[in-house]
Design brief:
Length: about 750
Amino acid sequence: MQIEILSNANSVIQQDNYLLIQTAEAEARVWVYSPTIIRVCISKTFAQSDESFAVIEKPLDNFTWQHLADIVEVTTSAVKLVINLKPLRFEFFTADGQPLSGDDTRFGTNWQAERVMNYRKLYPDEKFIGLGEKAGDLNRRGQNYVNWNTDAALHTITTDPLYKTFPFYIGLHSGLTYAVFFDNTHKSYFDFGATTDEQMMWFGADGGDMDYYFFGAQGIRNILEDYTWLTGRMEMPPLWSLGYQQCRWSYMSANEVLDVARKFREKQIPADVMYCDIDYMDGYKIFTWNKETFPDPKGMVDELKSMGFQLVTIVDPGIKIDENYPEYKEGVEKGYFATYPNGELFTGSVWPGRCHFPDFLNAEVREWWGVSFKALADPGVEGFWNDMNEPAAWGQNMPWMVKFGDKFMPEIRNVYGMQMSRATYNGTKRILNGKRPFILTRAAYAGTQRYSAVWTGDNAASDEHLLFGQRLVNSLGLVGMSMIGVDIGGFMGNPTAELMVRWNSLGPYTPMFRNHAALGMTMREPWQWGDDYEQIIKKDIEQRYKLLPYIYSGFYQSTKTGLPLSRTLAIDYTQDENIYDTKYQNQFLFGDALLVAPVISTVDHVDVYLPAGDWYRLNTDERFTGNQMVNVSCPLTDLPVFIKAGGIIPMQNIIQSTNEQGDGVLQIHIWNGDDTNTFVYYEDDGATYSYQSGSYHKRTITFDPQKREIVFNPVEGEYQSKYHKLELVGHGLDGVQLNRQIDNTNEVFAISY
Ligand code: GLC
């Protein structure tokens, strides 16, 4: 096999809105998307259509560049791209000339047959974060990874690849930040200086183009904002999906589902969601119900709804080969399934046995798939769980000659799950007539945040998985995802009661709070662990419900800025070396004000690193000085959760489900601090899209501890808050009484204390 390394440019011109550079091997094109986003695409065979599954924005019409001897410079207000023409290499700088990242001058972009790679300079102090759902440490320096969506059943905390592909990383060196999104759906590779004697980092793919977007914004928040501008942001999730979710593979009958739901209400343990895993179906045929065990789906869902529960049902892509199954027959007739190159239908085996696989790359198939959800939506289901969409089949790797339209498996695999969730989202959104569907997917590609929540797949009931799961959630937050869950309790294996309790205590601070377990594992509901532990779990779930106004406002932030709800400390404390320490790397901010330190179940004291600033322990209001490690107690009743001094947290009194109106009191908790702080409170009907046309309630709350004043700015939007009273609750105010209740009017007002 030959290696072809990009050689000298032999022409440079601007064509339309891009720069076109030719070498003997390939053609490079450069577009400017914004002052901080530049795209470089190097290709041997520029495809006629320039399509991306991830990117939803268009480049600027024009940009500034100049040709100086053997160099071309593309400049924006924020970034300078220096293109060396002999040989063709690309290097990015800040506008004032500090190097951010560039090609290794020797090897740059090159090909070995179809495989395209980019070798880049590596700075001695360079750290890397990102790639989403990947094993290993927060700082990915010294690690290498493969993106190849995989049904990673029985995965360990070092397994790679897992289920999802997010070819986006952030580089940190010399006090600077930058990021690269490699928009290529083929099997891809990232090496963060693991194998090159500290000389280079490299990434590339088995096929396709060297097509990447360079982000030059300074500060990780700005990079995330740019990345989610380019690839889209989530929409507001239905409020019910933020309540407690009880899942299991499987509740085997409607009666069992209803019994579990009733028990939550009897025991006054708040909950919003019940799940039906694969056993609700007739022979695992998608869009069917088992007539014996689920004889009256509508009756079941109605009863669940009367108790304030929503139901989520699972769907897998595999359509069972069965002559009496309409989806099978229609799919075959219309040519909706993946084929072999000779046109024969591809068959693989999954839960239903022998199956065909819809070609979700085809818009007509997505449409058909979307409409089929009527079988679930008509009886009242509003949540749709997309599983096994790597795509999974027994034996794992489907043949590479399997065809989807005119494309083959190697190019499709990493986007298949995303296209399935796209079809599910668009279809169910239409069917639900204005209500927000809740979509959950296991496989994903960059941009999936536009359609679906994700969870981290089949984890295990162990302490190390508890910590690992948090690391995955935090890392998924760096690639545009915000609505993320892990199987609390661990999917495989049986947790000890202590682990179950501890994991549930992390639940309130997990964007999607869902318990789930595999077939054959012990039952996991909160009452399965003895009275004392049940009470602790109940309190944790109640904590989730108290925090919902804060959490909902946090998701609003995600929809506007791409900032995730669960934030690795690297986002706000990028330059603090301690936060990358493997001892502290799982810690995260949950929203603007809370810092959470996940802890295993077998210790009652733990070292926590508190970054700069002052912090209060949530349960005691004890004040700590930051920039140091503190050893704190962590009994099973008290996960170490801290509030940033000056923190503002809206909370509500306990309700049993988000369906409940509640007492109409919104508590505004404030923790004393030194500096002025603000919080953007957001509310809407929690159920429809009317917020997109002005029906929301949004106001900025400012807390000025020096002036001893809290200002409620005028309300924006037309939605009337469901809270008619505001209750102010002060913490750390040295005995000063803030606590009082006032009317929640829409105009500006200030409270002094
Ligand atoms: C897969 C899913 C798991 C589900 C099971 C049965 O293993 O990851 O969550 O319970 O399939 O549908």
